[in-house]
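pls ignore typos typing on phone
calcium ion + seq
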Amino acid sequence: MKPLRPLPALLFLLLIGCANEGDSPVEPAPLFENQWRIRLSNLVLETTIYDTVQVEIMGVAPQAVDSVVGVITTPFGQLAGTFRLYDDASAYSLNDASEFASTHSGDLVANNGRFTRLINSHFADSAGTYYLAVQAWRDHEIAWTPQDTFLVSLSLPPQVSNLNLPDTLYSGFPPFQIGLQAFDPDAAFGDSVVSVQMRLYSSSGAFLGDPIQLTALDQINYGHTISADFAVGLDSNFYTFAFRAYDTFNMISDSLGRSVYIENVAPYLADPFFSDTVVTLPLPGDTTSFLASVRAWDDQTAEDIVEIYIQALKPDSTFGSIVELFDDGQSEVSGDEVAGDSTFTRIISIWPNNLLGLYVFHFRGLDQAGNQREITQNLWVIP
Ligand SMILES: [Ca+2]
Ligand SMILES: [Ca+2]
Ligand SMILES: [Ca+2]
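k done
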């Protein structure tokens, strides 16, 4: 009987051993997961335009996945179609190809855990909302993606109408809201206008600037407010405004266009001014300085002004060099007291070798459209 005695102790040791094993840190098994990588886009009914579906299976070697199956259902829970997804770099002609599931998977990289298939709308009897979820099988385990919703729609583009835009935008026009209406004929089954864009073309057809996105004011009305500065850099001419609407299938409406005359006039000039109206020629080695200034503004805002300058017609009837005036507030440099107050200024110097007599100063303003205006002011240089 003696040999039996150690048994309780041995059992005790085994129990301790089991307890220890249960307490020791063990790496948790990686979760068997199935996540969306590329969701199906909306599809156009009765077309064979394919779109990509892709999921990524995690927590298991790609080769150990038994199958990956997409399940399409209707809003009433009826099965519309099933198809398999593959991680095969599109290497094989697939024996489960169907009217709506591609012959080659469309997969790019084999055995990277991403399973792919190309699908068209031919599983659908009618336009409407459909649901897609993808199941992955490993042994008797199954991992689903979240259910995704997509549309199958008739291929009708949106329509745009009722454009509110005048034939002429006069120089310095007050702020104006361009308006139009846009709607999608497929709205009954969920399609809608995603964006309405405006493009501007020159009379020669050149596209000017970036497309401008109109703001949705309500379900069908879209608008965009333009101000006088819209015409910065545009010379007075006819321009074409073109409007297009895009739906969730990226179908594009016909272009709604209008030819509009946009006016841009030269900068305005006023109150040419010299700090001394009569200047005495300085002695040799000296200079006489005075301020020249003019008020200048532009209907298209100061942004349209390229340069305000003066050029003097000298007593010998030749023109002096171009001298630019500034509205920069750099009083020490240009002589301008206040930046941005529309008064442009420059310190002018007379030298001992300058001619005596009447100088006619031409004050000129030039804008980005090439428009120019000038006014003159006389200055006498006397001995
Ligand atoms: Ca549509
Ligand atoms: Ca202008
Ligand atoms: Ca100024």
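Residues 6-23 form the longest helix (18 residues). Residues 312 and 320 are 5 Å apart (CA to CA). more later
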